[in-house]
Design brief:
Oligomer: heterodimer
Structural class of chain B: mainly alpha
Shape of chain B: elongated
Distance between the termini of chain A: 55 Å
Number of domains of chain A: 1
Radius of gyration of chain B: 40 Å
Mean pLDDT of chain A: 85
Number of helices of chain A: 4
Membrane topology (chain A): Multi-pass membrane protein
Strand content of chain B: under 5%
Keywords (chain A): Cell membrane, Membrane, Transmembrane, Transmembrane helix
Mean pLDDT of chain B: 86
Helix content of chain B: over 70%
Number of strands of chain B: 4
Protein name (chain A): Na+/H+ antiporter subunit C
Pfam families (chain A): Oxidored_q2
Main location (chain A): membrane
Distance between the termini of chain B: 91 Å
Chain lengths: ~110, ~950
């Protein structure tokens, strides 16, 4: 189970990294979002994997580690805020610059300096 | 009253002249004068102690963890320098009052001057070498401000920058040296360093420490080859030159040599470097002093030369040499400050400092001329003035030393040459300006300055004579204690004007005669030197600076290409490079924890997740499909949380997923639907390699974590959730109670992000497609009937669910975050189904206020605990009997969670409704509708 979990997280990370390295803003934002999923899964797993042990007192004999869960819960919400911010930034850039390319190598590299 | 006052008075007093900007200039000057005078009064209380051989000290703890303390000492060496700094400082302040014109900002000048004075005092009184360094840097900064006082002149700016760059670089070297010394000694307190002198001298790092220390001293004191900055610092107002470049700042390097002489001195290395550098500097400085046409340029190079002389004496380091060095420090301060002030008077009264234009001023300014002749004679080393005596001592030392074995004889000869040049430029200073034919018209008709302006010069001239005639009365006391401090043994100084006929006297005589001859033959010298005119220190310096800055911008251009892809790739490759070796070092990846068996559900879930992730990555060119695949990934992540006993996470992830996918679809409306140009195959290949490595590293780490046994602090939370926080849902209790402060920070971040987005959307003119990607116009029905009806049904139910989830959150999966997101998604559905205007007509809530109220409720709940004298965010709970509901728990944590709830709704709605408005307001109309 642990092997499967870590391989899955690894693949999720690799796919997100590939997307983040694209040259257009939309795939980059999607990549960031997916990377935050991978990171959340990774952080969550620092509490180890427990099945049928939800940390609700009185329901089980042993409980999953609640601390990483609390951390990841806030991380999910912050991740949403970040996704929202970057996607709006991408839209704004498209509106202002007229292109959704993330690098400015073509357009004004000469004019910069 | 204590030692601290001597430094603190000018340090904080520096603010006073700034406050007095609107008062008359005389008051500003008087107030400024009062500050060093007060310090002098305090000093006078301690001086007898020091002269009697004690060392008054003061210790204030500052940063003990760094070994940095505000430790002060007032030994003989400090006393000597403190007296010079304060004494000459007082004269300079008085002089500057007359020198500065009414357009100059006197308050700023005095503030910088006092700041400089405080930092100099700090250097010489510090008993902690790090503290000394801090003040050392402060002198660099304050002298930068003073040299650049007339910042409208480009010469002043360049001179100031050159001085700062040179002395600043030296200061960094000094810091490195001091750190090495302090490390060897085990303490940064000077007394400890002094006690460890032998250890330091025998340490293998001694040469490195010494060279770094000397770099600091030589740059500050303008020793060869760093002498170039001092003449350019002459762009400063003359009082600054008189103060910084005669008595104080350039002497800081000399002070450093003297201070560290008992610690570092006496070794072969010290002897060789310091003596030779001093000797070269003395000759180079004297030669260039003679060539300068500018009065202040002449004085600047002569200062370089005299500093070289002192430096050489400290290099020799015998008892006689140290006494001679310290004596010359006093004498040089007297005559050089006087000469600078004279140059300032001449400049001020005649409008020029150029010796080619000035001549025959004797008749017009007789008082100035007389005073100038006295101080210049002292500089030339003519008896009976004080300069003569220290020069005699110096020549004596030059004769006595045997540093270079069989070649030692060349030192006295070169010393005599230096003395002769010194005589020559002193004569030039006097003869060119005051004699040399009849007066020629100048920009201003010169006359003697107001009496108070020449008073400081007169006082210094009196000192020159008095020290020369009665050296034992005037200076033997302070020289005794200062030399004792430098030599670390008690010394009794014997000084007299007349030593009888001996070799030094003969050398002096030769020097005077040779000096007169050199001056007489100066025209040939000038002609000879004209062939080297192209070599200007300033241009060389500027060229080096320019080259360094060019190289920096070339490097910058190469790094800062404006390509985000390159930056990210660079970061990721660095991660790989750093991580791989440490992963290779791990011998065992698999920990001791046994793996759990794989069940069918997990297997299928993982497969779906992996396939969806690959699909997201590979189908990125068709953006809508990519988004759908992303939502599958998010859903599977949510299910994983549910599977691994994290119901709260699963619920949060699910609703966040819904909201973010809606947001991205909205955004996609303004973006190209497809990626037009594909990356090159080469680039894709590179990215796949990078991505695989990163993924591999993450998987490896995760596997290592998962298979090692867990040690957690969560037992505390589980044990105390019910008793301390009053809830059975431990995750929620952690969020709103144990780690409530984190959550408060987090909702604040959410609110800030929402506000930022609101700002980003302000006046946005997004790119608006008039048709879909295949060229079909938008459908004429904006709000489908089915969706509208379903949405209207869903809203009340969703709200009810939200409230339920919110209320039960403390005990069962749920809570403010999840409830807020559920409510927000139901609202969003209304927007989608009915449009912005429709919703606005019926439900007009200002989401910004909602969000702010949420954050405020959460914060105030925390503050509320103060009312009960409990720490911030202490929660309290009780059980109430409610009608109908029955016994039900009420906790302040619930109030806090309400804040979270409102913030989440407010922020989410603010983001989505603002953005959604963009699509509808500018919605392209269907033709013929």
């Amino acid at each position: 189970m642990e092997t499967l979990y870590s391989v899955t997280v690894g693949i999720l990370t690799a796919c997100s990294v590939f997307l983040i390295l694209r040259g257009r803003s939309f795939p980059v934002v999607v990549g960031i979002t997916m990377l935050s999923y991978a990171v959340n899964l990774f952080l969550f797993s620092t509490g180890r994997l427990t099945i049928d042990g939800a940390p609700i007192l009185g329901t089980n004999d042993s409980y999953a580690d609640p601390l990483p869960q609390a951390l990841v819960l806030t991380a999910i919400v912050i991740g949403f805020a970040m996704t929202a911010y970057s996607i709006i930034l991408a839209v704004r850039t498209r509106g202002e610059v007229g292109t959704d390319e993330v690098s400015d190598t073509d357009s004004d590299a000469e004019g910069k300096r | 009253m204590n030692l601290l006052f001597i430094i603190m008075a000018p340090l904080f007093g520096a603010l006073l002249p700034l406050f007095l900007k609107r008062t008359p200039r005389t008051i500003q000057t008087l107030v400024t004068l009062a500050i060093p005078l007060a310090a002098i009064i305090v000093l006078l209380q301690y001086a007898p102690l020091t002269l009697a051989g004690e060392v008054p000290k003061q210790f204030v703890e500052w940063l003990p963890a760094l070994g940095l303390n505000f430790a002060l000492r007032l030994d003989g060496l400090s006393l000597l320098f403190v007296s010079l700094i304060l004494g000459i400082g007082v004269l300079i302040i008085g002089y500057a009052h007359y020198y500065l014109s009414t357009e100059d900002d006197e308050g700023r000048f005095y503030a910088c001057l006092l700041l400089f004075m405080a930092s100099m005092l700090g250097i010489v009184m510090a008993d902690n070498i790090l503290l000394m360094w801090a003040f050392w840097e402060l002198t660099s900064i304050s002298s930068f401000l003073l040299i650049g006082y007339w910042f409208h002149s480009s010469d002043a700016r360049r001179g100031a920058r050159m001085a700062l760059a040179t002395t600043g670089a030296g200061g960094l070297a000094l810091l490195a040296g001091l750190l090495i010394i302090g490390n060897i000694a085990g303490s940064y307190e000077f007394s400890a360093v002094l006690a460890a002198a032998d250890t330091i001298k025998n340490h293998p790092y001694y040469p490195a420490a010494l060279i770094l220390l000397l770099l600091g001293a030589f740059t500050k004191s303008a020793q060869f080859p760093f002498q170039f900055w001092l003449p350019h610092a002459m762009a400063a107002p003359t009082p600054v030159s008189a103060y910084l470049h005669s008595a104080t700042m350039v002497k800081a390097g000399i002070f450093l040599l003297a201070r560290f002489h008992p610690v570092m001195g006496g070794t072969e290395l010290w002897l060789t470097i310091v003596t030779i550098v001093g000797l070269i500097t003395m000759l180079v400085g004297a030669y260039f002093a003679l060539l300068k046409n500018d009065l202040k340029g002449l004085l600047a190079f002569s200062t370089v030369s005299h500093l070289g002389l002192i430096c050489m004496l400290l290099g020799i380091g015998s008892e006689g040499a140290v006494i001679a060095a310290l004596f010359h420090i006093i004498n040089h301060a007297c005559f050089k400050a006087g000469l600078f002030m004279t140059a300032g008077i001449i400049d001020h009264e005649s409008g020029t400092r150029d010796m080619r234009k000035l001549q025959g001023l004797m008749g017009l300014m007789p008082v100035t001329a007389t005073l100038a002749m006295i101080v210049a004679a002292s500089m030339a080393g003519i008896p009976p003035f004080n300069g003569f005596m220290s020069k005699e001592l110096f020549l004596d030392q030059a004769v006595q030393q045997h540093l270079f074995g069989g070649l030692s004889w060349f030192v006295p000869i070169l010393a005599t040459v230096g003395a002769a040049l010194s005589v020559a430029y002193s004569i030039r200073f006097i003869h060119d300006v005051f004699f040399n034919g009849e007066y020629k018209p100048l920009p201003k008709k010169p006359h003697d300055p107001p009496r108070m302006m020449s008073a400081p010069v007169a006082l210094l001239a009196v000192f020159c004579i008095a020290i020369g005639l009665a050296p034992m009365t005037m200076v033997s006391g302070i020289l005794d204690s200062a030399s004792s401090a430098v030599l670390a043994q008690s010394v009794a100084v014997k000084l007299s004007l007349w030593h009888g006929f001996n070799l030094p006297l003969l050398m002096s005589f030769v020097a005077v005669v040779a000096g007169i001859l050199i001056y007489a033959a100066r025209d040939q010298l000038f002609t000879f030197n004209r062939q080297f005119d192209g070599q200007d220190a300033k241009h060389n310096f500027e060229r080096i600076v320019q080259r360094v800055s060019d190289a920096a911008s070339r490097l910058f251009d190469r790094l800062d290409t404006g390509s985000l892809q390159r930056y990210i790739a660079f970061v990721l490759i660095s991660v790989i490079v750093v991580m791989l070796p440490s992963l290779v070092d791990i011998s065992m990846l698999t920990g001791s924890k046994a793996q759990q068996p794989i069940d069918m559900v997990s297997m299928v879930g993982a497969m779906v997740l992996i396939i969806a992730a690959f699909a997201t990555a590979t189908m990125h060119r068709n953006r809508f499909v990519m988004l759908m695949m992303l939502s599958v990934v998010g859903l599977m992540v949510s299910l994983s949380f549910a599977h691994f006993s994290a119901p709260d996470l699963a619920m949060t992830q699910l609703v966040v997923e819904v909201v973010s996918i809606i947001l991205m679809i909205l955004a996609l409306f303004f973006m190209p639907q497809k990626t037009a140009r594909a990356s090159s195959g080469h680039r894709v290949f590179r990215d796949i390699i990078i991505a695989s490595f990163i993924g591999g590293i993450v998987a490896t780490l995760n596997f290592a974590i998962l298979t090692s046994p867990a040690e957690t602090i969560s037992d505390f939370f589980i044990a105390n959730a019910k008793t301390g926080g009053g809830g059975t849902n431990v995750v929620n209790v952690i969020l709103v109670d144990f780690r409530g402060f984190d959550t408060l920070g987090e909702i604040t971040v959410l609110a800030i992000a929402a506000a930022g987005i609101h700002k980003l959307l302000n006046k946005l003119k997004p790119f608006m497609p008039s048709s879909d990607v295949d060229g079909r116009p938008w459908h004429r029905i904006k709000h489908p009937l089915m969706l509208t009806n379903v949405a209207n049904l869903v809203l009340p139910m969703a709200m009810m669910v939200a409230v339920y989830i919110f209320l039960r959150g403390h005990n069962l999966p749920g809570g403010g975050f999840i409830a807020g997101l559920i409510a927000a998604s139901a609202m969003i559905l209304q927007y989608i189904a009915n449009g912005v205007d429709w919703v606005k007509d019926r439900f007009n809530v200002n989401y910004q206020s909602l969000m702010s109220i949420g954050v405020m409720i959460a914060a105030l709940t925390g503050v509320g605990s103060w009312l009960f004298s409990k720490p911030f965010l202490t929660s309290w709970f009780t059980y109430l009997k409610w009608p109908l509901v029955g016994k039900w728990e009420f906790a302040t944590a619930l109030l806090f969670d309400l804040g979270v709830f409102l913030t989440v709704i407010g922020a989410t709605m603010m983001i989505l409704s603002n953005f959604g408005k963009m699509t509808t307001r500018h919605r392209p109309t269907y033709e013929g509708n």
